[in-house]
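Summary of Year 1 activities. Much of the first year was spent building the evaluation harness for sequence design. The harness presents a backbone, in tokenized form, and records the residue chosen at every position. We chose the following record to illustrate the format because it has been used consistently in internal testing since the harness was completed.
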């Protein structure tokens, strides 16, 4: 099949979170399975350009109909670690993708509505007729609308759309003006509960709802979360829409790219290891402590890597940090937050703990340090309020770093409690807690740190169980191939 992925992120060149990893890893897997895969991204000014090979202008004269006129674009092509990627550069006076950031502008809905329109126009004008257009998150929710309401009439009637939701919280709301700029027009038609109208704000268009309504198949990133989103407030108001379209909706667990996340050849860690040479992991622990100026004592290192967002259970992360320091463990945090007050709060903590040799807070984004932390820490904490899939716990498992997680979303599909899991012993790979409060997280931390100190062999078995598990793209790649095959013939 000929598959085009349209996305606002792609690792490593445009990465904010897991979406970037997923789009890269899935594209690679689909190619390995023999499909022809191409990607379309905005040409942001802050792309990680030295990770793109052979970037050159392949379509210098793309005019994208927009509002009352048209916007001139260039389309560049380059390889992102082997992935064939097209980057759309807009020459609109709005400078849609020259903002120094991926998200966070007041007109984000307009920026990505333009991206959708430009991507469709590029496919049309370049003669590309993919069997499958795979779209991701709210930023690309208008693609299936444009396909079925407009572009299918221009000869793109054989393409089908799969739409994957990575985070229900960000849905992309806009006013009627979006209909005019994208030239969809007809507000009386689109402002309808069965089409694009937001389920609560009757004066708004909802991009994510548009994606759900118009796509041929809708997935989210784990089976557990698919159920949560349809039946609880984790659907953030889209539960009814998911029910109505339940016949074409399901969860596919994300994979981890084991080519990138591979303890035997990861170029970002100083000492390579596997199950047989597990003791070498502790050389990475030393390297991590050296790099972060932490003391080398006989204590476990608990780590947190991720966005500092309320979704991630920031209050529990903070509590775990102090719990660790008071209970014989060290704590490493790598994260950043777009929210000013959260950022300020963690900067304050960082200053307060600056001379404490048992912890380190790194506030920013560092791929390199993330790899070293996964390799060097003993445990990785993921105390999320909600977590569609979560990659950090899966990476932790691969690196022999035992996850401590709250039982939500994809965390429930991947981490099985050492003491209370009902499945076979060999699948027990971490510690799970339920209540999103201090006693909840402490109940898991205590068991994890207790086992590390008192029963090191059992702790090691837990590490090995995790390393043996297969959370690669192999199985999800198979599922996505089946979904694509299924919708292609509809
Ligand atoms: P989300 O997509 O909600 O941000 P995931 O767990 O699905 O969370 O994916 C997070 C990905 O981003 C992981 O690969 C993680 O290692 C990486 N990551 C998050 N924050 C940082 C950071 N500050 N520095 C480096 N990598 C980070």
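For this record, the design step produced the sequence shown next.
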């Amino acid at each position: 099949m000929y598959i085009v992925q349209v996305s606002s992120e792609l690792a490593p060149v445009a990465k904010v979170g897991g979406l970037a990893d997923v789009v890269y890893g899935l594209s690679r897997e689909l190619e390995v399975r023999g499909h022809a895969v191409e990607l379309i991204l905005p040409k942001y000014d802050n792309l990680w350009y030295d990770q793109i090979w052979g970037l050159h202008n392949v379509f210098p004269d793309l005019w994208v109909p927009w509002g009352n006129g048209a916007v001139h674009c260039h389309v560049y092509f380059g390889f992102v670690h082997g992935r064939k990627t097209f980057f759309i550069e807009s020459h609109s006076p709005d400078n849609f993708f020259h903002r120094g950031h991926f998200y966070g502008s007041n007109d984000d809905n307009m920026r990505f509505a333009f991206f959708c329109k430009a991507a469709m126009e590029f496919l049309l004008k370049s003669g590309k007729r993919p069997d499958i257009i795979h779209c991701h998150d709210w930023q690309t929710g208008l693609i299936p609308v444009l396909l079925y309401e407009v572009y299918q009439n221009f000869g793109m009637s054989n393409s089908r759309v799969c739409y994957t939701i990575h985070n229900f919280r960000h849905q992309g709301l806009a006013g009627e003006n979006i209909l005019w700029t994208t030239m969809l027009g007809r507000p009386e038609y689109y402002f309808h509960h069965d089409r694009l109208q937001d389920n609560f704000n009757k004066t708004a268009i909802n991009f994510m709802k548009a994606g759900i309504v118009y796509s041929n198949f809708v997935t989210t990133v784990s089976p557990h979360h698919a159920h949560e989103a349809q039946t609880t407030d984790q659907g953030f108001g889209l539960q009814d829409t998911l029910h109505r379209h339940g016949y074409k909706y399901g969860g596919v667990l994300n994979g981890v790219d084991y080519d990138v996340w591979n303890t035997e050849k990861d170029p970002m860690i100083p000492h390579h290891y596997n199950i047989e040479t597990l003791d070498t992991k502790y050389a990475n622990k030393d390297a991590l402590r050296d790099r972060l100026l932490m003391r080398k004592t006989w204590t476990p290192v608990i780590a947190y890597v991720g966005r500092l967002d309320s979704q991630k259970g920031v209050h529990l992360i903070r509590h775990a940090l102090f719990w660790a320091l008071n209970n014989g463990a060290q704590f490493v945090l790598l994260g950043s937050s777009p929210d000013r007050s959260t950022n300020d709060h963690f900067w304050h903590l960082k200053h307060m703990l600056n001379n404490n040799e048992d912890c380190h807070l790194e506030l920013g984004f560092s791929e390199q340090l993330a790899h070293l932390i996964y390799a060097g820490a003993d445990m990785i904490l993921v105390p999320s309020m909600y977590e569609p899939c979560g990659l950090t716990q899966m990476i932790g498992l691969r690196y022999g770093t035992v996850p401590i997680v709250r039982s939500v979303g994809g965390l429930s599909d991947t981490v099985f409690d050492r003491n209370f899991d009902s499945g076979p012993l060999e699948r027990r790979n971490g510690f799970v807690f339920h209540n999103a409060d201090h006693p909840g997280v402490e109940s898991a931390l205590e068991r994890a740190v207790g086992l590390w100190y008192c029963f090191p062999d059992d702790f090691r078995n837990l590490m090995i169980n995790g390393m043996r598990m297969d959370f690669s793209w192999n199985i999800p790649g198979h599922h996505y191939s089946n979904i694509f095959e299924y919708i292609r013939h509809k």
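The mean pLDDT is 97. Quantitative recovery figures across the full test set are reported in Table 2.
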